[in-house]
Amino acid sequence: MRQNFRWIVVLGCIAVFAAFPFLLGEYWLHTAILSLFYVMMASSWNLLAGYTGQVSFAHAAFAAVGAYASGLSALYWHLPPLLTALFGAGIAALLGLALGALCIRMGGIYLSLTTLAFSEILRIILDNEYEITRGTMGLQVPFFFPTYSKVSAFYLMFVVTIGMLSLIFWLIHSDLGTSFRAVQNDETAAASLGINIVRVRIVAFVVSSALAGLAGALYGHYHQLITPEIASLNTMFLILAMTVIGGLGTFSGPIVGALFLEVLSEYIRVYGEFHVLIFGLIALVIARFAPVGLIGLWRRTSLAKQSSKTIAG
Amino acid sequence: MRKIVPMAFFQVTNVTKHFGGLTAVHDVSFELKEKEIVGLIGPNGAGKTTLFNLIAGAFRCSEGRIQFEGRQIQQLKSYQICRLGIARTFQIVRPFAEMTCLENVLVAFIGNNRYAGNLSKRKNEAARLLEFVGLARMLEQSAGNLNLIDKKRLEIARALATRPRLILLDEVLGGLNSGEIAEALSLIHTIRDEWGVSILWIEHVMGALMKVVERVLVLDNGRLICEGPPDEVVADRCVIEAYLGESDD
Question: What global pTM score does this model have?
Answer without folding.
Answer: 0.86
